[in-house]
C-alpha cells in the first residue's frame, strides 16, 4: 500500500488476495437533524453500513444516530457492488463489522482513494481473510488487537491528543479492546487506563477506529458513544479532502425511508428453525482456498516495529525493546553452548574446531554478500551496544533510528544462530501432516517422500489428519463416506507403515465437534452450506447459535451438539475403529470445543436440541431465553456446555485405555486465558490435564514474532495446573521466516517444555529442512534417540547427560563463578542424580522413582546456591539450566503415570 495525501492505492500483491464480487445498494435512511459542520443540511453526510453482524445491535445503533443530529443513509453491506455504492457521502461508518469479503475491501479502498473518510468500531474485519485484514490495516491505519477482560477507563492519549478529541465527555468507563496503530501516520487519540496504556482510539487523516462495539449498551454509554461519533465526524468533515465533497463517480441518490422493524433483531425467544440442506450435490466451480487444516489463531498482538516510523516510543516500550534484544542475545549464546557440547566429546566442541567455525562464517557470508562478516562475539557486542543506546536515542527523539537499528540487530543476531551443527536435546518433534499434503501425494510413493523429509529433519511424531469435516481419510465401516478427494488408496494404513519404518510415532488427528467445512465443500464441488455427510444424515445432531445458524456469522464450519448422546456414541465408535483397526500410536482431538463466541456482542452458541432439553430439565429454563446479563443463570449455562466437552474427553480417554493402554491422547487447544476461553469456546483443558485424561496438550501458540510467542506459551509451560501432562507448544510456519521459526524453537528449548509441534507439513520448505537436518537430524552413530512420549525415563537420562556436559564445559572454560571449595560437591551431586536416573530408566520401580525424584529435588535446591554468583552475571543461562532440570522432573511425573509406578 502507498499513501499519497489521503489517496490509498492497493498493490498488485494485495490484489492477489482479492476476488471479484457483486453488491447492490438497497436503500438509505436519514435523520433530518443538522450537524454543525455540514454545509448543506438537506444532504446526508454519513453512510452507515449494516450487516448480519451488527443487525442484532441495530436498535442501539439507530437510536444513537438519531440522537446525534446528523443526516445519514444506510447501505446493506451484502449488496454493494462497487465503490460507488458506498454513496456520495463524505464519511462511511462501519459499526462492529468483523467480516468483509475481499471484494468489499477493494470497494472500500477505491472509495477512500477518491477522498472518502472512514469511521469504524470494534474488531473491524478481524474475521476476514488474511488479505482483507492486511488491506484494512492499511486503510484504517490500525487494527483491533485483542479484547480486554474488564471494563476500563478511557482517557486521553499520553502524548498531546488532537484538539478535536480532548473534550471531557469523550472519556469514561468502556468495555472494549486494544487497537494497534499501523504505519507512521496513525495517532493514538485515546488510550486505556490499563498496563502500558494501550491505544483505545486510533485516527489518521482519513480514518478513525473506536476500540469498542459502538452502539451496544454492554460496551459503552449512550452519551459517550454519541460524543465520539460527533467528534470524529467533525474531524473528518472539516479536514481537507482531495477533490470535491461528493465523491467522484459515486451514486447521487439517497433514499430517505425510515428504518422498519424488519431491520431489527428477532426476539431471543423466537424458536430456532434450523435448515439443513438435504440435496447438497450441485455443480460448482472450485475456487482457490486457503489452508484449513486447523483454525489459525489470529495474530493480533505483535511488536509492530515499523522501520521508518517516527512515532514516539514511551518508557515501557523502550524497556520492552531492550529486553527482547537482550533475550535474543541470550538465546543465541544458549544455542552455541548446546552446539559446543553436542559433539562426541568436549575436545570436539566448536571453540576448538576451526573447521566448524569456518563453516559457520561461510554460512553467514552467503547471506550477506559483499559485506565483512563479524564473528558471533562481535555481533553480540554490537547488539548489546544497540540495546544500551536505545534510551539515549529516545531522549533525542530519534524514534525511527531506534526501530531501524532494532530490526537490523535482530536480523543480524538471527544469522548467528549455529544452524549448521547439531544442538537439539531429546524432545518431542511433532508436525501436523495436513489433508492437503496427503491428497497431493496421491499414493504411497509420494507420501513416502514426505515421510523421508520429515525423518531426515529429525521429526519423530506425526499428527496425521485422519478425520476432516466428518470425512475419514480411510474407508470406514462407521462413517457414511470416505473423503472424496482420496481415490484408490488408504492413506492411514500407508502412513502407519511409513512412520514405523522410520521409527516415528503416528497419531491420528481427528476433528471432534466441527462437523463440516465450507472450504472443503468448494474443493469437492458441493453446495457451500452442505453441513457434511454426518449432519446431512442426522440433522438432529446439529448445534446452533442464538439465531438458529449452524455456522456462526463470519465462520466456515457447522458444529455438532456435544450434549447429544447419539452423536457422542457415533464419535466414540468411529475413534475406536481408528485405534483398533490401525496401529496408530495415539489420537489427537482437534476442535474439541464449541465455535468461537462473544456473549457481550450477542453472539452465543450451543443451542442444539439435546442441549436445550437437558438444560431445561435441570433448571426449568430454556437456555435460548438466557442472556449474559443474567449472571448466575448464564454461568450455569456456560458450565453446562463446558461440562459436555469435559465429559466427552473423559469418555474418549476411557475408551482408549480399554482398547489399547499404550495409546497417547493429545489435544490441540487455544492458549487463551482460562476464563476467556471458557466463555468463548467452552474449552477447559486444565481440567482434562488434572484428571489425567490426556497425555499431551498442544496449545496453538501461533505468532509472527518470538516476543509474542513467549507471551502466549510461557504461562502454560510454567503452569502448575497440568498435573503429569506434557505441554508441547505449536509453531505456525506459514509466513514465518525460517530463522524466526528457529528462534521460537530455541526459546522452547530454553523453557521447561518437552518439545514442539509445527503447523504444518505443507509449509515445511527446503531451507527449513536443511536447518533441521543439521541441528536435530538423526545421529549417525546408530543409537536411537528416545521419544519423550514413549520413553520418558530414558529421555530424562539423555537430557541430564547433556546438562552435565554443559556444566563440565563451562567449568573447564571458567564461564561460571563457582567457588573452588564447592565445585567438588557440585560434581559429586551431579553423579548422584545421574546414577539415580540411570537406575530408574534401566529397571523402573516405585522405589527407584522415589530415589530419582528425591535426588533431583535435592540437587535443584542446591543448584540455586551453587549458581548464585553466576546468576548475577548471566541470569538467563542459569534460568535455562533450572528450566531443563524442571523438564526432567516433569518427565518423571509423566513417566510415573504412564508406567503406573504408584
From TrEMBL:
Residues 427-733 form the Glycosyl hydrolase-like domain. Keywords: Signal. InterPro entries: Class_I_gatase-like, Divisome_Glycosyl_Hydrolase, GH, GHL10. It comes from the Bacteria. Pfam families: GHL10. PANTHER family: GLYCOSYL HYDROLASE DIGH. This is Glycosyl hydrolase-like 10 domain-containing protein.
Amino acid at each position: 500500500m502507498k499513501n499519497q495525501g489521503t489517496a490509498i492505492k492497493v498493490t498488485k500483491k494485495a490484489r492477489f488476495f482479492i476476488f471479484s464480487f457483486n453488491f447492490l445498494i438497497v436503500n438509505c435512511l436519514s435523520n433530518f437533524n443538522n450537524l454543525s459542520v455540514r454545509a448543506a443540511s438537506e444532504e446526508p453526510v454519513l453512510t452507515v453500513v449494516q450487516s448480519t453482524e451488527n443487525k442484532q445491535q441495530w436498535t442501539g445503533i439507530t437510536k444513537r444516530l438519531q440522537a446525534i443530529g446528523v443526516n445519514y443513509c444506510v447501505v446493506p453491506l451484502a449488496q454493494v457492488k462497487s465503490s460507488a455504492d458506498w454513496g456520495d457521502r463524505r464519511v462511511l461508518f462501519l459499526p462492529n463489522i468483523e467480516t468483509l469479503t475481499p471484494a468489499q475491501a477493494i470497494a472500500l479502498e477505491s472509495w477512500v482513494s477518491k477522498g472518502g473518510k472512514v469511521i469504524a468500531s470494534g474488531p473491524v474485519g478481524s474475521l476476514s481473510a488474511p488479505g482483507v485484514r492486511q488491506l484494512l490495516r492499511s486503510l484504517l491505519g490500525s487494527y483491533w488487537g485483542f479484547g480486554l477482560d474488564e471494563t476500563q477507563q478511557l482517557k486521553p492519549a499520553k502524548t498531546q491528543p488532537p484538539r478535536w478529541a480532548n473534550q471531557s465527555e469523550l472519556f469514561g468507563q468502556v468495555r472494549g479492546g486494544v487497537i494497534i496503530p499501523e504505519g507512521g501516520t496513525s495517532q493514538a487519540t485515546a488510550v486505556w487506563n490499563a498496563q502500558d496504556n494501550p491505544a483505545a482510539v486510533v485516527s489518521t487523516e482519513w480514518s478513525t477506529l473506536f476500540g469498542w462495539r459502538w452502539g451496544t449498551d454492554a460496551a459503552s454509554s449512550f452519551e459517550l458513544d454519541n460524543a465520539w461519533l460527533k467528534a470524529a465526524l467533525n474531524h473528518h468533515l472539516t479536514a481537507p479532502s482531495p477533490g470535491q465533497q461528493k465523491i467522484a463517480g459515486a451514486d447521487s441518490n439517497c433514499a430517505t425511508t425510515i428504518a422498519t422493524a424488519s431491520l431489527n433483531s428477532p426476539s431471543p425467544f423466537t424458536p430456532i428453525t434450523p435448515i439443513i440442506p438435504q440435496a447438497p450435490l450441485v455443480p460448482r466451480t472450485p475456487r482457490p482456498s486457503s489452508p484449513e487444516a486447523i483454525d489459525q489463531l489470529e495474530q493480533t498482538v505483535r511488536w509492530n516495529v515499523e522501520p521508518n516510523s517516527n512515532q514516539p516510543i514511551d518508557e515501557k516500550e523502550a524497556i520492552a525493546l531492550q529486553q527482547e534484544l537482550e533475550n535474543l542475545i541470550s538465546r543465541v549464546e544458549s544455542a552455541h553452548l548446546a552446539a559446543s557440547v553436542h559433539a562426541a566429546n568436549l575436545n570436539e566442541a566448536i571453540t576448538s574446531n576451526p573447521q566448524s567455525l569456518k563453516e559457520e562464517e561461510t554460512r553467514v557470508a552467503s547471506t550477506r554478500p559483499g559485506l565483512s562478516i563479524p564473528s558471533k562475539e562481535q555481533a553480540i557486542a554490537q547488539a548489546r551496544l544497540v540495546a544500551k543506546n536505545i534510551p539515549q536515542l529516545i531522549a533525542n527523539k530519534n524514534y525511527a533510528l531506534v526501530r531501524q537499528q532494532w530490526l537490523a540487530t535482530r536480523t543480524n543476531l538471527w544469522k548467528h544462530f549455529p544452524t549448521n551443527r547439531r544442538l537439539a536435546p531429546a524432545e518431542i518433534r511433532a508436525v501436523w501432516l495436513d489433508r492437503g499434503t496427503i491428497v497431493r501425494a496421491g499414493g504411497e510413493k509420494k507420501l513416502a517422500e514426505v515421510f523421508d523429509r520429515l525423518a531426515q529433519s529429525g521429526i519423530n511424531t506425526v499428527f496425521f489428519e485422519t478425520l476432516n469435516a466428518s470425512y475419514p481419510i480411510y474407508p470406514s465401516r462407521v462413517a457414511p463416506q470416505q473423503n472424496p478427494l482420496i481415490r484408490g488408496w488408504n492413506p492411514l494404513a500407508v502412513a502407519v507403515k511409513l512412520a514405523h519404518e522410520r521409527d516415528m510415532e503416528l497419531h491420528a488427528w481427528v476433528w471432534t465437534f466441527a462437523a463440516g467445512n465450507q472450504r472443503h465443500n468448494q474443493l469437492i464441488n458441493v453446495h457451500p452450506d452442505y453441513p457434511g455427510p454426518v449432519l446431512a444424515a442426522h440433522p438432529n445432531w446439529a448445534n446452533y447459535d442464538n439465531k438458529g445458524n449452524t455456522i456462526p456469522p463470519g465462520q466456515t464450519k457447522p458444529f455438532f451438539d456435544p450434549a447429544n448422546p447419539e452423536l457422542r456414541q457415533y464419535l466414540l465408535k468411529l475413534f475406536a475403529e481408528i485405534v483398533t483397526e490401525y496401529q496408530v500410536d495415539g489420537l489427537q482431538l482437534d476442535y474439541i470445543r464449541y465455535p468461537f463466541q462473544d456473549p457481550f456482542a450477542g453472539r452465543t452458541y450451543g443451542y442444539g436440541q439435546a442441549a436445550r432439553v437437558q438444560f431445561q430439565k435441570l433448571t426449568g429454563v430454556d437456555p435460548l431465553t438466557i442472556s449474559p446479563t443474567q449472571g448466575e443463570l448464564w454461568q450455569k449455562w456456560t458450565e453446562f456446555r463446558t461440562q459436555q466437552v469435559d465429559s466427552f474427553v473423559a469418555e474418549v480417554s476411557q475408551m482408549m485405555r480399554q482398547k489399547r493402554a499404550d495409546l497417547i491422547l493429545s489435544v490441540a487447544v487455544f492458549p487463551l486465558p482460562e476464563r476467556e476461553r471458557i466463555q468463548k469456546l467452552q474449552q477447559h483443558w486444565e481440567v482434562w490435564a488434572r484428571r489425567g485424561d490426556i497425555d499431551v496438550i498442544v496449545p496453538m501458540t501461533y505468532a509472527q514474532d518470538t516476543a509474542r510467542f513467549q507471551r502466549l506459551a510461557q504461562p502454560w509451560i510454567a503452569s502448575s495446573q497440568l498435573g503429569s501432562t506434557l505441554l508441547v507448544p505449536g509453531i505456525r510456519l506459514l509466513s514465518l521466516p525460517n530463522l524466526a521459526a528457529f528462534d521460537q524453537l530455541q526459546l522452547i528449548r530454553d523453557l521447561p517444555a518437552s518439545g514442539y509441534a509445527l503447523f504444518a507439513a505443507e509449509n515445511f520448505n527446503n531451507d527449513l529442512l536443511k536447518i533441521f537436518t543439521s541441528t536435530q537430524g538423526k545421529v549417525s552413530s546408530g543409537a536411537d534417540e528416545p521419544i519423550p512420549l514413549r520413553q520418558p525415563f530414558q529421555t530424562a537420562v539423555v537430557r541430564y547427560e547433556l546438562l552435565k556436559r554443559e556444566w563440565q564445559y563451562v567449568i573447564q572454560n571458567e564461564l561460571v563463578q563457582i567457588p573452588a571449595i564447592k565445585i567438588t560437591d557440585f560434581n559429586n551431586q551431579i553423579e548422584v542424580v545421574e546414577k539415580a536416573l540411570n537406575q530408574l530408566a534401566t529397571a523402573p520401580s516405585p522405589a527407584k522413582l522415589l530415589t530419582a525424584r528425591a535426588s533431583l529435588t535435592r540437587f535443584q535446591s542446591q543448584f540455586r546456591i551453587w549458581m548464585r554468583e553466576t546468576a548475577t552475571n548471566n541470569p538467563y543461562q542459569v534460568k535455562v539450566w533450572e528450566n531443563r532440570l524442571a523438564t526432567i522432573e516433569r518427565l518423571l511425573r509423566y513417566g510415573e503415570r504412564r508406567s503406573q509406578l504408584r
